[in-house]
Specification:
alpha+beta; Pnp Oxidase, Chain A; 4 helices; about 40% strand
């Protein structure tokens, strides 16, 4: 990563100010255990989502000669045999359009030390360019870029898609997989609007 620890810390401090980081003790639980509700509103949905800890991945794809990626925590293995992955992408986003057009995507699982990379693909400055200039990567067999700093990666060809409210879920057959240079026992976790680490 072409940055110093000091610059990275400054950037993460800045991004924390841009993202509304809510402290656990300042949130009034909108879903008290002693109250039954017949429905939920958007605030409740966001509260639930903040409490769903997940590994951080960058989903990448290709469009002509251009690359694109987006940071997600909504990514799961849906099948072992055949090996399939599912990613959830915001509807009507450029990423959705490009995955539909190319029919391919790659899942790049990030390690703890790639928080800066996660922020880049989440849209914070400096945003990744269409050539991924300055970001170590190689092009996989599908044409999708693979991030060298990942813990592991999986290339997929889309076999189906499903509209789910304001997102689209793409299911892909895995065609290749491998290890990146990142530490496989130190994943980057996202929980309550913050990055977390499994290691003590």
């Amino acid at each position: 990563m072409c940055t110093t620890i000091e610059h990275m810390n400054q950037f993460l401090q800045w991004s924390a100010e841009v993202i509304e980081v809510v402290q656990p003790d300042s949130v009034k639980d909108p879903l008290p255990s002693n109250e039954k509700r017949d429905g939920v509103d958007a605030r409740s949905a966001r509260w639930i989502r903040r409490h769903m800890a997940g590994g951080v991945s960058v989903i990448t794809t290709v469009h002509g000669t251009m690359f694109r990626g987006t940071t997600v925590s909504a990514c799961i293995t849906t099948s072992i045999d055949p090996f399939q992955m599912l990613v959830s992408i915001e509807e009507d986003s450029q990423m959705e359009e490009w995955i539909r057009s190319s029919g391919v995507f790659a899942v790049n699982l990030l390690p703890w030390n790639e928080q800066f990379l996660a922020d880049q693909f989440a849209g914070f400055t400096p945003v990744a360019s269409g050539s991924f200039r300055g970001i170590p990567h190689f092009v996989g067999s599908t044409g999708a870029p693979i991030l060298e700093g990942s813990m592991a990666w999986v290339e997929c060809r889309v076999v189906s898609s499903l509209q789910t409210g304001d997102h689209v879920c793409f299911v892909g057959d895995a065609v290749a997989a491998g290890n990146g240079k990142g530490s496989v026992d130190d994943p980057l976790i996202y929980f309550f609007n913050r990055y977390h680490r499994l290691r003590p």
